[in-house]
Design goal:
Length: about 400
């Protein structure tokens, strides 16, 4: 049996490493067992980790109607074995169910934030002349956002002879285009304007202006990927991504960038986000390039960083916000009695609402099964996904209850 959190491409912020602990055995979660058909037991329970606290013996903690017993499956930290608190009834979509602490499987996850490496290359060719102010404003906004605090960021322009000559349309030198004008270095959590690395990049953005030259797109793209791939040490858990800001107008020395993107992604595994300012007319298929570079589609933006952050969230979220439902040999999970808790940002654990499907999610901190008759996956609603993957520390617990009669029972 297993519980899997699927990893996707690294986002530009709020990446989490989740430690998953799975327990599954019809009786091993409890120190004593009573007939589940007889109601809640008189004694408490103790899980495999010896944790106690907010029990599920009653309803108020899990939103389950019923009177509950004097003990329960334990959730919050504490001394083991003494059982949980008594519930007296509740709501949250579980109405009519009498709580039963005899869970047959459980899931526990801890999340710790780690910080990505981000390499940014910005097109300042003649094709960017009419939109340069918007580009500069949006990137300044991006670098100032708290979502990037702690990220290791580098910046360069193309075509440009800084810091190494020959990143231009005359030579299309990818090695020259791989040099970084600023960084890479980590952004601190200092207030806006007080981080020297952030200030250095913003100064370069304010000082830069479009040239009258064409853009060496292929060389700039290859140089960006090579620089990003070579920066992270072997085994470094910090993910590496790149942002390629361009008008999408190639020069005479450019090759087929769509194929270059595919090969670069296959060889180096660095996802490259393609961002194109509104108001330009790309001459290459930037969506196809983004798809081959591991990021699905190009980002359209104007003066705000919101489109950059928003689309990168959808594409690059490190956790796909789902977990496989455990299988218990000879028994079947009772979908109506599965209960989930989360602690977000160090706050006290709270019960999470279960909804029937994604259409009922709204802005609720809720979850649902992929199939309510034969569930294989537990899926977090968008609001819960955002909360669990953009705040830290985070813990998530789920308790699965089996149908009383096994696979052939009621």
């Amino acid at each position: 049996m297993s519980v899997v959190m699927r990893n996707a491409r690294a986002p530009f912020w709020g990446l989490f490493v989740l430690a998953v602990v799975f327990a599954c055995s019809g009786r091993s979660l409890r120190t004593e067992h009573t007939d589940p058909d007889a109601g809640a037991p008189a004694g408490g329970t103790e899980d495999a980790g010896g944790r106690s606290g907010a029990g599920l013996g009653g309803a108020s903690t899990a939103g389950i109607s019923g009177t509950g017993g004097t003990g329960g499956i334990v959730v919050n930290g504490g001394s083991g074995g003494s059982g949980g608190t008594v519930g007296t009834g509740g709501t949250a979509g579980y109405a009519g169910f009498q709580a039963d602490p005899d869970a047959c499987a459980s899931l526990h996850m801890d999340a710790t934030r780690i910080f990505p490496h981000i390499f940014i290359a910005v097109d300042r060719s003649s094709a960017m002349a009419d939109v340069w102010d918007d580009v500069s404003a949006a990137l300044t906004d991006l670098l100032s956002r708290p979502e990037l605090d702690g990220a290791d960021v580098a910046l360069r322009f193309f075509p440009d002879d800084e810091p190494v000559p020959s990143c231009d349309a005359a030579t299309c030198n990818a090695t020259a285009c791989g040099g970084q004008l600023v960084g890479p270095a980590r952004l601190s959590i200092a207030p806006v304007g007080e981080d020297p690395h952030e200030a250095a990049m913003i100064r370069e953005l304010e000082a830069a202006e479009p040239t009258g030259e064409a853009a060496p797109l292929t060389a700039a793209f290859e140089g960006l990927v090579l620089a990003a791939a070579s920066h992270a040490p072997v085994g470094d858990p910090q993910p590496t991504s790149a942002l390629f800001v361009t008008a999408g107008v190639p020069s005479e020395c450019d090759g087929e960038l769509t194929e270059v993107a595919r090969v670069a992604f296959e060889e180096h595994g660095v996802p490259v986000f393609i961002a194109v300012p509104e108001g330009v007319s790309p001459e290459v298929d930037l969506d196809a390039i983004a798809a081959n570079a591991g990021t699905n589609e190009a980002i359209r933006f104007s003066r705000s960083a919101d489109p950059l952050l928003g689309l990168m969230w959808l594409i690059g979220n490190a956790v796909t916000c789902e977990a496989l439902v455990p299988t218990v040999e000879g028994r079947r999970i009772d979908v109506d009695r599965t209960i989930a808790y989360a602690s977000i940002g160090g706050a006290e654990s709270m019960a999470l609402l279960r909804v029937s499907d994604v259409t009922e999610c709204g802005m609720q901190l809720a979850w649902y099964f992929d199939n309510n008759e034969a569930p294989a996956t537990m899926i977090w609603c968008p609001a819960l996904c955002l909360a669990l993957t953009s705040s830290y520390p985070v813990t998530f617990d789920a308790f699965y209850y089996c149908e009383r009669g096994g696979l052939g029972g009621p």
